């Protein structure tokens, strides 16, 4: 007779994917072990971070009343920066705040709270332990290995984040390619609540989230910047294309965050602030091409480890995909337990669940979006053309005025792009976005 497993499920990684999976399974009575390398959970994690959507409600009813979030997004900006200018679209709406669709969070706090919720639901949570690999016998995952010890379970959920060493070292997914990831660098800057409210025109719990295209970087290097207001600090960071950075060879991600912070239209927002934390982390960027095989005999992969994230230059979302995929993996595990069948065929229901949710639908629908977010058009042409157009429009030089169409054509020609190419490129971008 086969020996019983020590746990029904082992979850590797206590980020939003892993904790969501653990909470869901433990709440349904499963015997769950959640293993996290950081002690306490969250201290190795980096996120902008706006937690978009309301997926936590499915596992923690009324989560918003208890969760340690900083502010709710009421003011959202999307801007293009050139060396001298900022072209900004600023959307402020009380309706955004009422819908509470974006919660600005600090991961160290959120993840510790989620890990506590997993414990309260009945999961065993071990922190400060790094899983080395999964144990595979006859093509079936039987548990995890760490320091020569084997801990057995019927199913393992790998939720280890954007650098999935366990899945790669265990042969469950291919190594990352440069195009699958970007590098995120982030500072937390202390400003004080009053100053933040004054500077960003905010009241109470309302918050500001800004995303910027850094159109002033050296040729070949592309990056986006973000600035989010927490209660009394701001999170400022950049996400840099790994592929470009490696090709360029002489620009470093830490230089780019400096340049972003010192930009004439970013610097005043953080003036007088004190950097309290500095961190760097990989960001999943691969889209559907970067998604590995998601399940097999005795295992499933969730969250960033599975390549689930979405970015269209206007928002960067990963935590909501992590939570939704963690829940989908947990539901599949609960079903598998009820049938005592953790085979690849049984766990195929995980993919079905993801296909019926925004997780895989978005990745499939927005196939190729990276071609827009990391394009020369977005990072070079649009910022320069818009700068040229607005500068002309708002400069009075006592000369006869030009029609806007003429101003746009002149700016396009200065950018080196033909009008016909601009129309085709614009159409392609609209379709992909
Ligand atoms: C700079 C930056 C800005 C971002 N901004 C946003 C944003 O604004 N909004 C948004 O939704 N998303 C954002 N993201 C993406 C978001 O952070 C991720 O999509 C999300 O954290 C994925 O959750 P996860 O649970 O899959 O992985 P993670 O949050 O990375 O959690 C994985 C966990 O596994 C642990 N772990 C790893 N290996 C092991 C091991 N071998 N053994 C034990 N434990 C292990 C890690 O310590 C970690 O706690 C941002 C990311 C970065 C880097």
From TrEMBL:
What cofactor(s) does the depicted protein rely on? FAD
Keywords carried by this UniProt record: FAD, Flavoprotein, Oxidoreductase
Instruction: Please list the residue ranges annotated as the FAD/NAD(P)-binding domain.
Output: 8-166
Query: One Pfam family for this entry, by name?
Result: Pyr_redox_2
Q: Where do the ETF-QO/FixC ubiquinone-binding domain residues begin and end?
A: 182-281
Q: Keyword Oxidoreductase on this protein? A: yes
Q: Keyword check for Flavoprotein, yes or no.
A: yes
* A molecular function (GO) term: oxidoreductase activity
InterPro entries annotated for this entry?
A: ETF-QO/FixC_UQ-bd, FAD/NAD-bd_sf, FAD/NAD-binding_dom, FixC-like
Q: Which PANTHER family match?
A: ELECTRON TRANSFER FLAVOPROTEIN-QUINONE OXIDOREDUCTASE YDIS-RELATED
Q: What is this protein called?
A: Oxidoreductase FixC
């Amino acid at each position: 007779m086969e020996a019983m497993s020590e746990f029904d499920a082992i979850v590797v990684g206590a980020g939003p994917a892993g904790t969501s999976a653990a909470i869901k399974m433990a709440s349904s009575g499963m015997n769950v072990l959640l293993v996290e390398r950081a002690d306490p959970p969250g201290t190795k994690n980096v996120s902008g971070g706006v937690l978009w959507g309301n997926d936590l409600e499915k596992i923690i009813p009324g989560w918003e009343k208890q969760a340690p979030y900083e502010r709710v997004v009421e003011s959202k900006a999307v801007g293009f920066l050139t060396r001298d200018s900022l072209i900004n679209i600023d959307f402020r709406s009380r309706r955004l705040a009422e819908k509470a669709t974006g919660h600005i969070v600090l991961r160290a706090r959120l993840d510790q709270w989620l890990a506590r919720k997993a414990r309260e639901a009945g999961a065993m949570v071990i922190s400060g332990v790094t899983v080395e690999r999964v144990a595979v016998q006859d093509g079936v995952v039987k548990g995890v290995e760490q320091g020569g010890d084997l801990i057995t379970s019927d199913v393992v959920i790998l939720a280890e984040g954007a650098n999935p060493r366990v899945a790669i070292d265990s042969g469950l997914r291919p190594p990352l390619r440069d195009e699958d990831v970007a590098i995120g660098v982030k500072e937390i800057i202390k400003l004080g609540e009053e100053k933040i409210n004054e500077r960003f025109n905010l009241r109470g719990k309302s918050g500001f989230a800004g995303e910027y295209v850094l159109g002033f970087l050296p040729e070949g290097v592309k990056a986006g910047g973000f600035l989010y207001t927490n209660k009394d600090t701001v999170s400022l960071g950049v996400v840099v294309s790994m592929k470009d950075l490696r090709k360029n060879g002489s620009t470093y991600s830490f230089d780019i965050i400096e340049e972003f912070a010192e930009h004439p239209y970013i610097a005043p927002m953080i003036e007088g602030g004190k950097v309290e934390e500095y961190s760097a982390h990989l960001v999943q960027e691969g889209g559907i091409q970067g998604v590995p095989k998601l399940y097999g005999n005795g295992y499933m992969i969730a969250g960033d480890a599975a390549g689930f994230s979405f970015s269209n230059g206007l928002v960067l979302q990963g935590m909501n995909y992590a939570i939704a995929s963690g829940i989908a993996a947990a539901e599949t595990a609960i079903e598998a337990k009820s049938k005592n069948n953790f085979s690849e065929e049984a766990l195929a229901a995980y993919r079905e669940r993801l296909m019926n949710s925004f997780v895989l639908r978005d990745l499939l629908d927005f196939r190729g979006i990276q071609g827009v977010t990391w394009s020369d058009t977005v990072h070079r042409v649009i910022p320069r053309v818009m700068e040229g157009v607005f500068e002309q429009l708002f400069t009075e030089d006592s000369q006869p005025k030009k029609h806007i169409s003429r101003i746009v054509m002149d700016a396009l020609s200065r950018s080196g792009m033909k009008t016909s190419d601009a129309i085709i490129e614009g159409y392609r971008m609209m379709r992909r976005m």
